[in-house]
Design goal:
Structural class: alpha+beta
Helix content: 25-40%
Shape: globular
Distance between the termini: 61 Å
Number of strands: 23
Number of helices: 19
Largest sheet: 7 strands, mixed
Radius of gyration: 22 Å
Length: 518
Protein backbone atom coordinates (compact mmCIF):
# COMPACT_ATOMS: atom_id res chain seq x y z
CA UNK A 1 0.00 0.00 0.00
CA UNK A 2 1.37 3.42 -0.94
CA UNK A 3 2.25 5.99 1.74
CA UNK A 4 -0.28 8.47 0.37
CA UNK A 5 -3.01 5.81 0.53
CA UNK A 6 -2.19 5.14 4.19
CA UNK A 7 -2.27 8.85 4.94
CA UNK A 8 -5.42 9.65 3.00
CA UNK A 9 -7.31 6.49 3.85
CA UNK A 10 -8.51 6.36 0.25
CA UNK A 11 -8.35 2.94 -1.45
CA UNK A 12 -6.46 3.10 -4.74
CA UNK A 13 -8.18 1.09 -7.47
CA UNK A 14 -8.13 0.33 -11.17
CA UNK A 15 -11.17 -0.24 -13.35
CA UNK A 16 -10.97 -3.42 -15.42
CA UNK A 17 -13.13 -3.18 -18.55
CA UNK A 18 -14.06 -6.59 -19.96
CA UNK A 19 -15.61 -6.36 -23.43
CA UNK A 20 -17.36 -9.61 -24.30
CA UNK A 21 -19.34 -10.88 -27.27
CA UNK A 22 -22.67 -9.37 -26.23
CA UNK A 23 -21.87 -7.13 -23.27
CA UNK A 24 -19.27 -5.18 -21.32
CA UNK A 25 -18.51 -5.04 -17.59
CA UNK A 26 -16.45 -2.47 -15.73
CA UNK A 27 -15.25 -3.67 -12.32
CA UNK A 28 -13.10 -1.75 -9.85
CA UNK A 29 -10.48 -3.64 -7.81
CA UNK A 30 -7.63 -2.74 -5.54
CA UNK A 31 -4.27 -4.51 -5.87
CA UNK A 32 -5.29 -7.12 -3.30
CA UNK A 33 -8.23 -8.28 -5.42
CA UNK A 34 -10.95 -6.56 -3.40
CA UNK A 35 -13.92 -5.60 -5.56
CA UNK A 36 -15.43 -2.15 -4.95
CA UNK A 37 -18.14 -1.70 -7.55
CA UNK A 38 -19.21 -2.70 -11.04
CA UNK A 39 -21.45 -1.74 -13.94
CA UNK A 40 -22.53 -3.59 -17.06
CA UNK A 41 -24.22 -2.91 -20.38
CA UNK A 42 -25.26 -5.04 -23.32
CA UNK A 43 -25.31 -4.76 -27.10
CA UNK A 44 -26.84 -6.99 -29.78
CA UNK A 45 -25.11 -9.63 -31.87
CA UNK A 46 -26.27 -9.02 -35.44
CA UNK A 47 -26.99 -12.21 -37.41
CA UNK A 48 -28.60 -10.85 -40.57
CA UNK A 49 -27.50 -13.76 -42.77
CA UNK A 50 -26.52 -17.39 -42.17
CA UNK A 51 -22.98 -17.65 -40.73
CA UNK A 52 -22.82 -13.90 -40.06
CA UNK A 53 -22.20 -12.58 -36.54
CA UNK A 54 -21.52 -8.85 -36.40
CA UNK A 55 -21.63 -5.98 -33.93
CA UNK A 56 -21.94 -2.22 -34.30
CA UNK A 57 -18.68 -0.64 -33.03
CA UNK A 58 -20.46 2.63 -32.17
CA UNK A 59 -22.95 0.80 -29.95
CA UNK A 60 -20.10 -0.97 -28.21
CA UNK A 61 -18.22 2.28 -27.61
CA UNK A 62 -21.33 3.90 -26.13
CA UNK A 63 -21.68 0.93 -23.78
CA UNK A 64 -18.00 1.11 -22.79
CA UNK A 65 -18.21 4.79 -21.94
CA UNK A 66 -21.43 4.25 -19.97
CA UNK A 67 -20.03 1.50 -17.72
CA UNK A 68 -16.73 3.34 -17.13
CA UNK A 69 -18.62 6.52 -16.27
CA UNK A 70 -20.98 4.74 -13.87
CA UNK A 71 -18.14 2.90 -12.15
CA UNK A 72 -15.99 6.01 -11.83
CA UNK A 73 -18.94 7.93 -10.36
CA UNK A 74 -19.53 5.23 -7.73
CA UNK A 75 -15.81 5.23 -6.87
CA UNK A 76 -16.02 8.97 -6.20
CA UNK A 77 -19.04 8.37 -3.98
CA UNK A 78 -17.06 5.69 -2.09
CA UNK A 79 -14.11 8.08 -1.72
CA UNK A 80 -11.75 5.86 -3.75
CA UNK A 81 -8.81 7.03 -5.82
CA UNK A 82 -9.02 5.90 -9.45
CA UNK A 83 -5.49 5.04 -10.57
CA UNK A 84 -6.39 3.99 -14.09
CA UNK A 85 -8.40 1.92 -16.56
CA UNK A 86 -7.26 -1.36 -18.16
CA UNK A 87 -8.89 -3.19 -21.07
CA UNK A 88 -9.79 -6.77 -21.84
CA UNK A 89 -11.48 -7.51 -25.16
CA UNK A 90 -12.92 -10.48 -26.94
CA UNK A 91 -10.65 -12.02 -29.60
CA UNK A 92 -10.69 -12.26 -33.42
CA UNK A 93 -12.72 -9.16 -34.35
CA UNK A 94 -12.28 -7.31 -37.63
CA UNK A 95 -13.62 -4.20 -39.34
CA UNK A 96 -12.09 -2.18 -42.14
CA UNK A 97 -11.46 1.46 -41.22
CA UNK A 98 -11.30 4.51 -43.48
CA UNK A 99 -8.61 7.20 -43.47
CA UNK A 100 -10.24 8.79 -40.41
CA UNK A 101 -10.21 5.46 -38.49
CA UNK A 102 -13.99 5.22 -38.83
CA UNK A 103 -15.54 1.78 -39.48
CA UNK A 104 -16.56 1.08 -43.07
CA UNK A 105 -18.78 -1.78 -41.89
CA UNK A 106 -20.05 -3.54 -38.82
CA UNK A 107 -17.40 -5.51 -36.97
CA UNK A 108 -17.13 -9.24 -37.64
CA UNK A 109 -16.84 -11.23 -34.40
CA UNK A 110 -15.13 -14.52 -33.64
CA UNK A 111 -18.46 -16.29 -34.24
CA UNK A 112 -18.72 -15.04 -37.83
CA UNK A 113 -18.02 -17.97 -40.15
CA UNK A 114 -18.89 -16.53 -43.56
CA UNK A 115 -15.25 -17.07 -44.57
CA UNK A 116 -15.53 -20.86 -44.16
CA UNK A 117 -15.30 -21.22 -47.94
CA UNK A 118 -12.05 -19.24 -47.94
CA UNK A 119 -10.64 -21.57 -45.28
CA UNK A 120 -11.71 -24.62 -47.28
CA UNK A 121 -9.77 -23.30 -50.28
CA UNK A 122 -6.72 -22.54 -48.14
CA UNK A 123 -6.75 -26.06 -46.73
CA UNK A 124 -6.23 -27.45 -50.21
CA UNK A 125 -2.61 -26.51 -49.51
CA UNK A 126 -1.99 -28.08 -46.09
CA UNK A 127 1.74 -27.37 -46.27
CA UNK A 128 0.97 -23.67 -46.44
CA UNK A 129 -1.56 -23.95 -43.61
CA UNK A 130 0.99 -25.70 -41.41
CA UNK A 131 3.59 -23.06 -42.32
CA UNK A 132 1.19 -20.28 -41.32
CA UNK A 133 0.23 -22.11 -38.10
CA UNK A 134 3.84 -22.62 -37.02
CA UNK A 135 4.51 -18.92 -37.59
CA UNK A 136 1.41 -17.54 -35.89
CA UNK A 137 0.16 -20.17 -33.44
CA UNK A 138 -3.27 -19.77 -35.09
CA UNK A 139 -4.78 -22.71 -36.99
CA UNK A 140 -6.32 -21.69 -40.31
CA UNK A 141 -9.99 -21.13 -39.46
CA UNK A 142 -12.88 -18.79 -40.20
CA UNK A 143 -12.77 -17.23 -36.74
CA UNK A 144 -9.45 -15.50 -37.45
CA UNK A 145 -9.21 -12.03 -39.05
CA UNK A 146 -6.86 -13.42 -41.72
CA UNK A 147 -9.74 -15.32 -43.33
CA UNK A 148 -12.17 -12.43 -42.74
CA UNK A 149 -9.89 -9.98 -44.59
CA UNK A 150 -9.58 -12.33 -47.56
CA UNK A 151 -13.37 -12.78 -47.61
CA UNK A 152 -13.82 -9.01 -47.78
CA UNK A 153 -11.25 -8.72 -50.59
CA UNK A 154 -12.97 -11.38 -52.67
CA UNK A 155 -16.62 -10.50 -51.99
CA UNK A 156 -16.57 -6.70 -51.56
CA UNK A 157 -13.56 -5.40 -53.50
CA UNK A 158 -14.97 -1.85 -53.43
CA UNK A 159 -14.94 -1.83 -49.61
CA UNK A 160 -11.55 -3.52 -49.54
CA UNK A 161 -10.10 -0.81 -51.75
CA UNK A 162 -11.49 1.88 -49.40
CA UNK A 163 -9.97 0.17 -46.34
CA UNK A 164 -7.10 2.37 -45.20
CA UNK A 165 -6.60 0.58 -41.89
CA UNK A 166 -7.30 -2.92 -40.53
CA UNK A 167 -9.14 -2.53 -37.26
CA UNK A 168 -10.08 -4.71 -34.30
CA UNK A 169 -12.30 -3.99 -31.33
CA UNK A 170 -9.25 -3.38 -29.12
CA UNK A 171 -7.46 -0.76 -31.23
CA UNK A 172 -10.75 0.94 -32.11
CA UNK A 173 -11.78 1.36 -28.46
CA UNK A 174 -8.27 2.31 -27.30
CA UNK A 175 -8.02 5.03 -29.94
CA UNK A 176 -11.37 6.56 -28.97
CA UNK A 177 -10.31 6.55 -25.31
CA UNK A 178 -6.76 7.85 -25.78
CA UNK A 179 -6.34 9.17 -29.32
CA UNK A 180 -3.58 6.60 -30.06
CA UNK A 181 -3.93 3.88 -32.68
CA UNK A 182 -1.96 0.86 -31.49
CA UNK A 183 -2.67 -2.81 -30.77
CA UNK A 184 -1.30 -5.01 -28.00
CA UNK A 185 0.79 -8.13 -28.63
CA UNK A 186 -1.99 -10.31 -27.22
CA UNK A 187 -4.72 -9.11 -29.58
CA UNK A 188 -2.34 -9.06 -32.55
CA UNK A 189 -1.39 -12.67 -31.84
CA UNK A 190 -5.04 -13.73 -32.25
CA UNK A 191 -5.29 -12.38 -35.81
CA UNK A 192 -3.53 -15.13 -37.77
CA UNK A 193 -1.24 -12.46 -39.25
CA UNK A 194 1.28 -12.00 -36.41
CA UNK A 195 4.62 -13.76 -36.23
CA UNK A 196 5.05 -15.10 -32.70
CA UNK A 197 8.81 -15.45 -32.92
CA UNK A 198 9.39 -11.94 -34.26
CA UNK A 199 6.52 -10.56 -32.13
CA UNK A 200 5.44 -8.40 -35.05
CA UNK A 201 3.24 -8.53 -38.15
CA UNK A 202 4.29 -11.21 -40.62
CA UNK A 203 5.10 -9.71 -44.02
CA UNK A 204 4.52 -12.96 -45.93
CA UNK A 205 1.04 -13.48 -44.49
CA UNK A 206 0.09 -9.81 -44.90
CA UNK A 207 1.03 -10.07 -48.57
CA UNK A 208 -1.04 -13.26 -48.92
CA UNK A 209 -4.05 -11.37 -47.51
CA UNK A 210 -3.47 -8.42 -49.83
CA UNK A 211 -2.43 -6.06 -47.03
CA UNK A 212 0.53 -3.81 -46.34
CA UNK A 213 2.23 -3.06 -43.03
CA UNK A 214 1.06 0.56 -43.22
CA UNK A 215 -2.52 -0.65 -42.80
CA UNK A 216 -1.77 -2.41 -39.51
CA UNK A 217 -1.63 -0.74 -36.09
CA UNK A 218 1.80 -0.60 -34.41
CA UNK A 219 2.17 -3.45 -31.90
CA UNK A 220 2.85 -2.58 -28.25
CA UNK A 221 3.19 -4.38 -24.93
CA UNK A 222 0.04 -5.43 -23.06
CA UNK A 223 1.14 -3.02 -20.30
CA UNK A 224 1.34 -0.05 -22.70
CA UNK A 225 -0.21 3.04 -21.14
CA UNK A 226 -1.64 6.30 -22.52
CA UNK A 227 -3.67 9.12 -20.99
CA UNK A 228 -7.45 9.43 -21.29
CA UNK A 229 -8.17 11.90 -24.10
CA UNK A 230 -10.01 15.13 -23.35
CA UNK A 231 -13.01 14.26 -25.52
CA UNK A 232 -13.53 10.85 -23.94
CA UNK A 233 -13.01 12.32 -20.46
CA UNK A 234 -15.65 14.97 -21.09
CA UNK A 235 -18.18 12.42 -22.36
CA UNK A 236 -17.67 10.27 -19.25
CA UNK A 237 -17.48 13.09 -16.71
CA UNK A 238 -13.89 12.25 -15.84
CA UNK A 239 -10.51 14.00 -15.75
CA UNK A 240 -8.34 13.91 -18.85
CA UNK A 241 -5.01 12.14 -18.49
CA UNK A 242 -6.22 9.21 -16.37
CA UNK A 243 -3.91 6.30 -17.35
CA UNK A 244 -5.44 3.76 -19.74
CA UNK A 245 -3.57 0.45 -20.11
CA UNK A 246 -4.25 -1.32 -23.39
CA UNK A 247 -4.35 -4.74 -21.72
CA UNK A 248 -4.86 -8.06 -23.48
CA UNK A 249 -7.57 -10.40 -24.73
CA UNK A 250 -10.18 -11.85 -22.42
CA UNK A 251 -9.13 -15.44 -23.06
CA UNK A 252 -5.56 -15.10 -21.82
CA UNK A 253 -6.44 -12.69 -19.00
CA UNK A 254 -8.72 -15.27 -17.40
CA UNK A 255 -5.66 -17.22 -16.25
CA UNK A 256 -4.28 -14.13 -14.54
CA UNK A 257 -7.60 -13.20 -12.97
CA UNK A 258 -8.15 -16.59 -11.34
CA UNK A 259 -4.53 -17.15 -10.36
CA UNK A 260 -3.71 -19.96 -12.82
CA UNK A 261 -0.25 -18.55 -13.51
CA UNK A 262 2.18 -21.39 -12.75
CA UNK A 263 3.29 -24.44 -14.78
CA UNK A 264 0.75 -27.25 -14.53
CA UNK A 265 -2.14 -24.85 -13.82
CA UNK A 266 -4.98 -24.57 -16.33
CA UNK A 267 -8.06 -22.40 -16.60
CA UNK A 268 -11.37 -23.89 -17.75
CA UNK A 269 -14.01 -21.38 -18.81
CA UNK A 270 -17.52 -21.83 -20.09
CA UNK A 271 -19.45 -18.69 -20.92
CA UNK A 272 -21.03 -18.05 -24.31
CA UNK A 273 -18.24 -20.22 -25.71
CA UNK A 274 -15.63 -22.18 -23.73
CA UNK A 275 -11.89 -22.74 -23.44
CA UNK A 276 -9.05 -24.49 -21.68
CA UNK A 277 -5.76 -22.61 -21.33
CA UNK A 278 -2.31 -23.06 -19.81
CA UNK A 279 0.57 -20.59 -19.41
CA UNK A 280 3.89 -21.28 -21.16
CA UNK A 281 7.18 -19.40 -21.19
CA UNK A 282 7.49 -19.56 -24.98
CA UNK A 283 5.19 -20.00 -27.98
CA UNK A 284 4.06 -23.63 -28.28
CA UNK A 285 2.34 -25.28 -31.23
CA UNK A 286 0.83 -28.72 -31.62
CA UNK A 287 2.10 -31.12 -34.35
CA UNK A 288 -1.56 -32.00 -35.03
CA UNK A 289 -2.57 -28.31 -35.16
CA UNK A 290 -5.30 -28.80 -32.55
CA UNK A 291 -4.44 -25.87 -30.27
CA UNK A 292 -3.60 -22.20 -30.50
CA UNK A 293 -0.98 -20.10 -28.72
CA UNK A 294 -1.40 -16.38 -27.93
CA UNK A 295 0.72 -13.78 -26.19
CA UNK A 296 -0.04 -12.56 -22.66
CA UNK A 297 2.95 -10.46 -21.65
CA UNK A 298 6.31 -9.89 -23.30
CA UNK A 299 7.70 -13.14 -21.83
CA UNK A 300 4.56 -15.19 -21.20
CA UNK A 301 2.25 -17.08 -23.56
CA UNK A 302 -1.00 -19.01 -23.28
CA UNK A 303 -1.53 -22.28 -25.13
CA UNK A 304 -5.01 -23.65 -25.33
CA UNK A 305 -8.12 -24.34 -27.30
CA UNK A 306 -11.48 -22.60 -27.46
CA UNK A 307 -14.79 -24.19 -28.37
CA UNK A 308 -17.45 -22.18 -30.19
CA UNK A 309 -20.41 -23.73 -28.45
CA UNK A 310 -20.64 -23.23 -24.70
CA UNK A 311 -23.42 -21.53 -22.80
CA UNK A 312 -25.05 -20.43 -26.06
CA UNK A 313 -26.18 -24.05 -26.50
CA UNK A 314 -27.84 -24.14 -23.08
CA UNK A 315 -29.50 -20.84 -23.98
CA UNK A 316 -30.82 -22.48 -27.16
CA UNK A 317 -32.20 -25.38 -25.10
CA UNK A 318 -33.81 -22.91 -22.70
CA UNK A 319 -35.46 -20.91 -25.49
CA UNK A 320 -36.22 -23.54 -28.16
CA UNK A 321 -36.71 -26.77 -26.23
CA UNK A 322 -37.93 -25.68 -22.80
CA UNK A 323 -39.49 -22.34 -23.88
CA UNK A 324 -38.49 -20.78 -20.56
CA UNK A 325 -39.15 -17.13 -21.37
CA UNK A 326 -38.93 -14.38 -18.78
CA UNK A 327 -42.65 -13.82 -19.01
CA UNK A 328 -43.30 -17.53 -18.57
CA UNK A 329 -41.21 -17.80 -15.40
CA UNK A 330 -41.92 -14.43 -13.83
CA UNK A 331 -44.83 -15.65 -11.75
CA UNK A 332 -42.73 -18.59 -10.49
CA UNK A 333 -39.92 -16.28 -9.29
CA UNK A 334 -37.29 -18.67 -10.62
CA UNK A 335 -34.43 -18.33 -13.11
CA UNK A 336 -34.74 -20.45 -16.25
CA UNK A 337 -31.21 -21.84 -15.90
CA UNK A 338 -31.81 -22.79 -12.26
CA UNK A 339 -34.95 -24.66 -13.29
CA UNK A 340 -33.04 -26.44 -16.06
CA UNK A 341 -30.29 -27.45 -13.63
CA UNK A 342 -32.90 -28.83 -11.23
CA UNK A 343 -34.53 -30.88 -13.98
CA UNK A 344 -31.16 -32.18 -15.24
CA UNK A 345 -30.13 -33.18 -11.72
CA UNK A 346 -32.91 -35.78 -11.69
CA UNK A 347 -31.37 -37.55 -14.71
CA UNK A 348 -28.53 -40.03 -14.17
CA UNK A 349 -25.04 -39.25 -15.54
CA UNK A 350 -24.95 -40.12 -19.22
CA UNK A 351 -28.57 -39.00 -19.79
CA UNK A 352 -29.58 -42.63 -20.31
CA UNK A 353 -27.57 -42.89 -23.52
CA UNK A 354 -28.52 -39.54 -25.06
CA UNK A 355 -25.51 -37.70 -26.51
CA UNK A 356 -25.50 -34.16 -27.84
CA UNK A 357 -22.85 -33.02 -30.30
CA UNK A 358 -23.15 -29.29 -29.43
CA UNK A 359 -21.41 -27.88 -32.50
CA UNK A 360 -24.27 -25.71 -33.75
CA UNK A 361 -21.92 -23.01 -35.08
CA UNK A 362 -19.13 -25.22 -36.42
CA UNK A 363 -16.19 -25.76 -34.10
CA UNK A 364 -12.81 -24.38 -33.28
CA UNK A 365 -10.49 -26.51 -31.13
CA UNK A 366 -9.57 -29.24 -31.51
CA UNK A 367 -11.26 -29.94 -34.87
CA UNK A 368 -11.21 -26.48 -36.53
CA UNK A 369 -14.13 -27.45 -38.71
CA UNK A 370 -16.63 -24.74 -39.69
CA UNK A 371 -18.88 -27.30 -41.40
CA UNK A 372 -19.49 -29.26 -38.21
CA UNK A 373 -23.12 -29.21 -37.05
CA UNK A 374 -24.97 -30.17 -33.87
CA UNK A 375 -27.05 -33.25 -33.21
CA UNK A 376 -28.78 -35.37 -30.58
CA UNK A 377 -27.77 -39.01 -30.91
CA UNK A 378 -29.44 -41.96 -29.23
CA UNK A 379 -32.93 -40.52 -28.81
CA UNK A 380 -35.56 -42.99 -27.65
CA UNK A 381 -39.10 -42.75 -26.30
CA UNK A 382 -37.97 -42.61 -22.68
CA UNK A 383 -36.04 -39.39 -23.23
CA UNK A 384 -37.57 -36.11 -22.07
CA UNK A 385 -36.64 -32.44 -21.96
CA UNK A 386 -34.73 -33.16 -18.75
CA UNK A 387 -32.56 -35.67 -20.61
CA UNK A 388 -31.95 -33.14 -23.38
CA UNK A 389 -30.87 -30.51 -20.86
CA UNK A 390 -28.42 -32.87 -19.20
CA UNK A 391 -27.15 -34.14 -22.57
CA UNK A 392 -26.45 -30.52 -23.60
CA UNK A 393 -24.43 -29.87 -20.43
CA UNK A 394 -22.54 -33.12 -20.91
CA UNK A 395 -21.95 -32.53 -24.63
CA UNK A 396 -20.31 -29.18 -23.96
CA UNK A 397 -18.08 -30.92 -21.41
CA UNK A 398 -17.18 -33.58 -24.00
CA UNK A 399 -16.02 -30.74 -26.27
CA UNK A 400 -13.89 -29.38 -23.44
CA UNK A 401 -12.42 -32.84 -22.89
CA UNK A 402 -11.36 -33.04 -26.54
CA UNK A 403 -9.30 -29.89 -25.98
CA UNK A 404 -7.83 -31.22 -22.73
CA UNK A 405 -6.53 -34.35 -24.47
CA UNK A 406 -4.44 -32.13 -26.76
CA UNK A 407 -3.13 -29.94 -23.92
CA UNK A 408 -2.00 -32.96 -21.92
CA UNK A 409 0.76 -33.40 -24.48
CA UNK A 410 2.24 -30.02 -23.45
CA UNK A 411 2.93 -31.08 -19.87
CA UNK A 412 1.58 -32.42 -16.62
CA UNK A 413 -1.69 -30.98 -15.31
CA UNK A 414 -1.76 -30.30 -11.58
CA UNK A 415 -4.58 -27.80 -11.09
CA UNK A 416 -7.59 -26.70 -13.16
CA UNK A 417 -9.29 -23.49 -12.09
CA UNK A 418 -12.73 -22.62 -13.41
CA UNK A 419 -14.47 -19.39 -14.38
CA UNK A 420 -17.39 -18.20 -16.45
CA UNK A 421 -21.16 -18.24 -16.08
CA UNK A 422 -21.29 -22.03 -15.78
CA UNK A 423 -19.72 -21.76 -12.31
CA UNK A 424 -23.17 -20.76 -11.03
CA UNK A 425 -24.24 -24.38 -11.53
CA UNK A 426 -22.80 -26.89 -9.09
CA UNK A 427 -24.21 -29.70 -11.24
CA UNK A 428 -22.41 -28.47 -14.36
CA UNK A 429 -19.14 -28.14 -12.45
CA UNK A 430 -19.46 -31.71 -11.21
CA UNK A 431 -20.21 -32.96 -14.72
CA UNK A 432 -17.08 -31.26 -16.06
CA UNK A 433 -14.97 -32.75 -13.26
CA UNK A 434 -16.34 -36.21 -14.04
CA UNK A 435 -15.89 -35.88 -17.81
CA UNK A 436 -12.33 -34.52 -17.54
CA UNK A 437 -11.54 -36.93 -14.68
CA UNK A 438 -9.75 -34.05 -12.95
CA UNK A 439 -10.25 -31.99 -9.80
CA UNK A 440 -11.62 -28.52 -10.43
CA UNK A 441 -10.93 -25.52 -8.20
CA UNK A 442 -13.58 -22.80 -8.03
CA UNK A 443 -11.74 -19.57 -7.07
CA UNK A 444 -13.23 -16.87 -4.89
CA UNK A 445 -12.95 -14.49 -7.84
CA UNK A 446 -14.92 -15.61 -10.89
CA UNK A 447 -14.51 -12.34 -12.87
CA UNK A 448 -11.24 -13.54 -14.35
CA UNK A 449 -10.75 -11.28 -17.36
CA UNK A 450 -11.68 -8.00 -15.64
CA UNK A 451 -9.39 -8.67 -12.69
CA UNK A 452 -6.68 -9.89 -15.08
CA UNK A 453 -6.83 -6.55 -16.87
CA UNK A 454 -6.56 -4.73 -13.53
CA UNK A 455 -3.47 -6.80 -12.70
CA UNK A 456 -1.84 -5.55 -15.92
CA UNK A 457 -2.71 -2.04 -14.76
CA UNK A 458 -0.95 -2.55 -11.45
CA UNK A 459 2.03 -4.11 -13.26
CA UNK A 460 2.18 -1.17 -15.69
CA UNK A 461 2.11 1.30 -12.79
CA UNK A 462 4.80 -0.58 -10.89
CA UNK A 463 2.54 -1.60 -8.01
CA UNK A 464 2.96 -5.31 -8.83
CA UNK A 465 6.15 -6.90 -10.13
CA UNK A 466 4.52 -9.44 -12.43
CA UNK A 467 1.32 -11.33 -13.15
CA UNK A 468 2.59 -14.20 -10.97
CA UNK A 469 1.73 -12.12 -7.92
CA UNK A 470 -1.95 -13.00 -8.46
CA UNK A 471 -1.32 -16.58 -7.37
CA UNK A 472 -1.45 -15.46 -3.75
CA UNK A 473 -4.41 -13.12 -4.21
CA UNK A 474 -6.94 -15.66 -5.47
CA UNK A 475 -8.17 -18.24 -2.96
CA UNK A 476 -10.13 -21.45 -3.62
CA UNK A 477 -13.80 -21.37 -2.68
CA UNK A 478 -14.56 -25.03 -3.40
CA UNK A 479 -12.94 -28.07 -5.01
CA UNK A 480 -14.92 -30.55 -7.16
CA UNK A 481 -13.53 -34.08 -7.39
CA UNK A 482 -14.49 -36.68 -10.03
CA UNK A 483 -16.83 -39.48 -8.97
CA UNK A 484 -15.35 -42.82 -10.09
CA UNK A 485 -18.66 -44.33 -11.21
CA UNK A 486 -19.52 -41.24 -13.26
CA UNK A 487 -16.04 -41.16 -14.82
CA UNK A 488 -16.51 -44.68 -16.18
CA UNK A 489 -19.87 -43.75 -17.70
CA UNK A 490 -18.52 -40.62 -19.35
CA UNK A 491 -15.40 -42.31 -20.72
CA UNK A 492 -17.58 -44.84 -22.53
CA UNK A 493 -19.91 -42.17 -23.94
CA UNK A 494 -17.04 -39.85 -24.85
CA UNK A 495 -15.64 -42.61 -27.06
CA UNK A 496 -18.96 -42.69 -28.94
CA UNK A 497 -18.97 -38.87 -29.11
CA UNK A 498 -15.53 -38.88 -30.77
CA UNK A 499 -16.53 -41.55 -33.28
CA UNK A 500 -19.65 -39.59 -34.23
CA UNK A 501 -17.43 -36.72 -35.29
CA UNK A 502 -14.91 -38.76 -37.26
CA UNK A 503 -17.44 -41.11 -38.91
CA UNK A 504 -19.76 -38.37 -40.18
CA UNK A 505 -17.28 -36.12 -42.00
CA UNK A 506 -19.00 -36.33 -45.40
CA UNK A 507 -22.44 -35.89 -43.84
CA UNK A 508 -21.34 -32.72 -42.08
CA UNK A 509 -20.03 -31.30 -45.36
CA UNK A 510 -23.24 -32.22 -47.20
CA UNK A 511 -25.65 -30.83 -44.61
CA UNK A 512 -23.66 -27.60 -44.30
CA UNK A 513 -23.79 -27.21 -48.09
CA UNK A 514 -27.54 -27.85 -48.06
CA UNK A 515 -28.10 -25.24 -45.34
CA UNK A 516 -26.15 -22.63 -47.29
CA UNK A 517 -28.68 -22.96 -50.13
CA UNK A 518 -31.62 -22.06 -47.88
Amino acid sequence: MKVQELMSGKPEVWIGVDLGTTGVRAIAYDMHGKKYCAAEAFYPLLTLHPDWAEENPLQIMESVERVISETAAELRYKNCTLEGIALSTVMHSFAGLDEHYEPLMDMQTWADSRSAGIVKEMKQDMDMCRHFYEKTGCPVHACYPLAKVIWLRQNHPELFSQMRYVGSLKDYIFRLLTGEWVIDHSTASTSGMYNEQAMDWDEEILSYAGLSRSQMPPVVSTTYMAGLAAGAAERMGMTAGVPVVIGATDGVLVNVGIGAVHPGQLSATIGTSGALRMLTEKPMTDPKMRTWCYNLTDNMWVAGGAINNGGMILRWVRDKICHYTSAHLEHLDVDGYDLMTMKASHVAPGAEGLIMLPCFTGERAPYWNSELRGMFFGLSLNHSRSHMIRAAMEGICYSMNAVLQALKEFGRIEDIRVSGSFTKSGLWLQILSDVLNEKLTLPDNSEGAAFGAVVLGFVASGRLKSINDTAELVKPRRVYSPVTENVQTYQELYGIYERLYWNLQKEFVDIAAFQKKL
